[in-house]
């Protein structure tokens, strides 16, 4: 088939992605994907077995940097935050599409990350979130290479750090604020987890806080009557757990960790909790946050009043440990339209949804961004029992490839 030029970017209404699936060059890439299942699985296992605890993604990052070089990406480098970046250069610098996945896991150092195979399932912490996304980056580069696809615009492949928990999107934040790509990205795609249906174009906002209460402590018998931070923290928890959230916009809270005290017969000197607040609405998020602050203030006042005779008071401190903006990439943005068209061209009925991912940051900055599943199925994300089944993964890789080509164009 004669190679036709596929225009990138904004002329998307004109781009027929179904037609693109018949293009000989795209078919060559698809054939490579169909024939590479064992290769993709081996890669996924290799990545998973390199531990990447929060704030300790370096070893996995080094692997990605060397892999990017081996696969022929250009200007491969690790930025000052730890993100690994490499370019699949087109004839032009623009449009510049970022394809990314996150290096970090939620699992602490020392977690057994060896992959066990049970039937079709690959079982290991992190195997889907986000090793399936990371493996897809490698698989996509290999597919572009195998079919020798010459693109009009440029694709930057980026393995980010700090997506999970207290990482607070530090990698992608850096990428869009101080990194070399800041101000140059036309569109951003994050591959996070499995699946082929969801197109996450709405960013779920969240705020996370650590509440810490402190008192003088003492002996349970001898000093009885002294303010007790654990008792006060209990009142905070009780108030929060009675908070009535609206059904719509969906709003949630979770006290995920508590800590405090030394021993059963010691009045504790400190107690703390970590709480995660989320809402589809910035307004509801703010309301929830204000409720939390009021609940802490009230609990401290109650404890101080109740134990006033002791002459000592509790101190409270609320620290923000996470802040992810909410927002959305409009449905008529080229990246959303292209991902929808790519899904349909492959017979997939797309589901548009909302989540909290690396895309929150570009969305907040007005850069069109979506998060896609990288194919396959999985369960038990963020648990030691996490598993991934690569069945149907090809569809995820093909959708990703079509979306990318739809955005940067073919020469
Ligand atoms: Zn993830």
Characterization of the model:
- By secondary structure, the protein is of the alpha+beta class.
- It folds into 2 domains: 9-204 and 326-408, 3-Layer(aba) Sandwich (Aminopeptidase), CATH 3.40.630.10; 205-324, Alpha-Beta Plaits, CATH 3.30.70.360.
- It is built from 11 helices and 19 strands.
- The chain has helices at 17-20, 24-34, 37-48, 58-70, 131-146, 170-177, 229-241, 282-306, 334-345, 360-364, 393-408, and strands at 74-78, 84-88, 96-102, 116-118, 121-123, 154-160, 187-191, 198-203, 205-214, 218-219, 251-260, 266-267, 270-279, 315-324, 327-328, 351-355, 369-372, 377-379, 387-389.
- The strands form 4 sheets. Strands 1, 2, 3, 6, 7, 8, 15, 16 and 17 form a 9-stranded mixed beta sheet that branches. Strands 4-5-19-18 form a 4-stranded antiparallel beta sheet, with no helix packed on it.
- Helix 3 crosses helix 5 (131-146) and helix 5 crosses helix 11 (393-408).
- The longest helix is centred in the C-terminal third of the chain and has 25 residues, at 282-306.
- The radius of gyration is 24 Å and the shape is elongated.
- The chain binds zinc ion.
- The site of zinc ion has 6 residues, from loops.
Briefly summarize what is shown.
The chain is of the alpha+beta class and 411 residues long. The chain has helices at residues 17-20, 24-34, 37-48, 58-70, 131-146, 170-177, 229-241, 282-306, 334-345, 360-364, 393-408; strands at 74-78, 84-88, 96-102, 116-118, 121-123, 154-160, 187-191, 198-203, 205-214, 218-219, 251-260, 266-267, 270-279, 315-324, 327-328, 351-355, 369-372, 377-379, 387-389.
């Amino acid at each position: 088939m004669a190679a036709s030029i596929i225009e990138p970017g904004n002329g998307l209404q004109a781009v027929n992605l179904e037609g693109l699936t018949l293009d000989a060059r795209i078919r060559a890439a698809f054939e490579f994907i169909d024939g590479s299942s064992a290769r993709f699985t081996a890669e996924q296992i290799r990545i998973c077995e390199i531990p990447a605890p929060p704030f300790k993604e370096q070893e996995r990052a080094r692997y990605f940097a060397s892999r990017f070089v081996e696969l022929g990406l250009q200007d491969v480098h690790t930025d000052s935050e730890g993100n690994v970046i490499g370019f699949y250069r087109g004839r032009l610098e623009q449009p510049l599409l970022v394809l990314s996945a996150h290096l970090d896991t939620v699992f602490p150092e020392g977690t057994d990350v060896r992959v066990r195979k049970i039937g079709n399932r690959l079982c290991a912490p992190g195997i889907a979130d986000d090793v399936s996304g990371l493996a897809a980056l490698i698989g996509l580069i290999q597919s572009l290479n195998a079919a020798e696809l010459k693109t009009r615009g440029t694709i930057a492949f980026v393995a980010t750090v700090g997506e999970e928990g207290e990482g607070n999107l530090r990698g992608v934040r850096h990428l869009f604020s101080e990194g070399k790509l800041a101000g140059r990205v036309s569109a951003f795609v994050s591959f996070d987890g499995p699946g082929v249906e969801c197109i996450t174009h709405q960013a779920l906002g969240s705020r996370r806080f650590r509440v810490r209460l402190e008192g003088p402590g003492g002996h349970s018998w001898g000093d009885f009557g002294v303010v007790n931070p654990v008792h006060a923290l209990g009142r905070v928890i009780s108030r929060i757990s009675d908070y009535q959230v609206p059904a719509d916009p969906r709003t949630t809270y979770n006290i995920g960790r508590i800590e405090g005290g030394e021993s059963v017969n010691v009045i504790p000197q400190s107690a703390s909790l970590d709480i995660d607040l989320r809402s589809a609405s910035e307004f509801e998020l703010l309301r929830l946050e204000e409720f939390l602050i009021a609940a802490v203030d009230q609990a401290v006042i109650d404890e101080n009043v109740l134990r006033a005779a002791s002459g000592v008071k509790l101190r409270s401190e609320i620290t923000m440990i996470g802040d992810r903006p909410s927002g959305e990439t409009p449905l008529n943005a080229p990246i959303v339209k292209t991902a929808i068209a790519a899904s349909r061209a492959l017979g997939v009925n797309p589901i548009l949804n909302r989540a909290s991912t690396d895309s929150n940051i570009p969305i907040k900055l007005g850069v069109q961004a979506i998060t896609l599943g990288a194919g396959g199925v999985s369960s038990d994300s963020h648990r030691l029992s996490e598993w991934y089944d690569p069945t149907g993964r090809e569809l995820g890789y093909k959708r990703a490839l079509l979306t990318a080509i739809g955005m940067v164009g073919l020469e």
